[in-house]
Amino acid sequence: MLIVTWAHSNAPFAMAMPTERIEAVLAGMVGAFEFFGCVAREVWWDNPKTVATAILKGRRRRVHDRYAALASHYRFDPMFCMPASGQEKPRVENRVYDLQRRWATPVPAVNDLDELNDHLRSCCIGERDRTVSGQNQTIGERFEQDRATSLALPAFGFDASISTPAKVDKYQTVRFDTNRYSVPRSFAFETVTVKATIDRIDVVATGGRGGRGGVVVASHARCYGSDEQILEPLHYLVTLGRRPAALDHADVYRNWRLPSVFAALRRLLEDRHGPSAGARQYIRVLQLLAEHPVERVRAVIERSMDRDVVTAELIRDRTARLAARSSSPGAAATGATVHRLTVPKPDLNRFDQLLASTSQGEPIHA
User: Fold this and answer.
1) What's the confidence (pLDDT) of residue 345?
2) Rounded Cα gap, residues 284 and 174, in angstroms
3) 176, 210 in Cβ contact below 8 A?
């Protein structure tokens, strides 16, 4: 849980996180600045190792490179409390008690972190109507004073991510932390960059063959488990054609959630063409998903199921025609009223008259 509090107004921000790593600190601070609509000139921490990687003499710290980039982007001064000096952070400590006793009692009933953070934002906004003991202004009124002396948000947000180089192995996976994430076959054995946020893992090409540097070649939901494989079935469709038995025995395909019409198509193909030939035709249909969205292929399958002869070639041809119609210039105008406009040809004699009038010193009126 990240809790941010303004020293003067005591205006709070709270955000639940899946981790305490530096990428969570970055995402939380970006969320706090956007929530407040401004940036404090100084941001103080109590020396967490994710932010202050080394405590030097006095208030000097060695700051994590990404946190230093955050401070540079938002133009605030990164400050740190002295060790064992609890009196330097009383307000934020009290906000921890607020979280426990008022915002989380009773325990909120939520489905995920997003709902929990919505609840916490509502609690923080509600605090602005409260008056702290010993003050004669509400937290919201005092926060407006904070806002008046703060920095404006920059025109562009900060990329709250960390990046690290990695090598794709022969199984088409790249390692980040203790887990492995899949990439397309064409990037096997290449060096890539893994870009991690609190909820996503993006694999970015660094160049290599074909000059594909800077392109995101795979994107996965981040896994916080240990020694797990996060595999995208589409990345293995090329090898599936050479190893059709993997369709029933590899976890990456057994756990693939496709619309029910795909399973119905496989049963139909195997009934009409035999188990082996039918499975191979079904695999050729699955390989269409490397080029077309699932909904397009699903629509073609549904329209083809009632034919006497259903083959992978039929579905492929129909999918290609549907894609061509979807990308044609007139597709967006289907069903809409198109008005024909007629533009009259220009009268060049008027241009001659204009030249004649200017040569005689007459003014031009636009």
Assistant:
1) 59
2) 27
3) no
Please, where in the chain does CATH 3.30.420.10 lie? 2-148
pLDDT at 300: 94
Which is nearest to 204 in space by CA: 224, 223, 184? 184
The answer to whether the beta carbons of residues 297 and 319 sit under 8 Å apart is yes
Report in angstroms the alpha-carbon separations of 84 from 43, 89, 288, 338.
18, 11, 62, 74
As a residue count, the chain comes to 366
Low-confidence spans in the chain with pLDDT less than 70 = 85-90, 208-212, 328-366
Q: Is the whole model's pTM more than 0.85, yes or no?
A: no
pLDDT tens for residues 72-129?
Answer: 999 999 999 888 766 666 677 788 888 899 999 999 999 999 999 999 999 999 999 9
Kindly state the tokens that stand for 327: 């990308």
| Cβ pair 208, 221 in contact under 8 A | no
Say which CATH architecture domain 2-148 belongs to. 2-Layer Sandwich (3.30)
Query: In 107-176, where do the E strands start and end?
Result: 162-167, 173-176
CA 68 – CA 78 distance, rounded (Å)? 8
**Token duo for residue 307:** 């034919």
Find residue 4's DSSP bridge partners.
Answer: 13
Specify the residue for token string 């906000």. 95
> Six-digit token pair at 105?
């009692």
Amino acid 333: pLDDT: 44
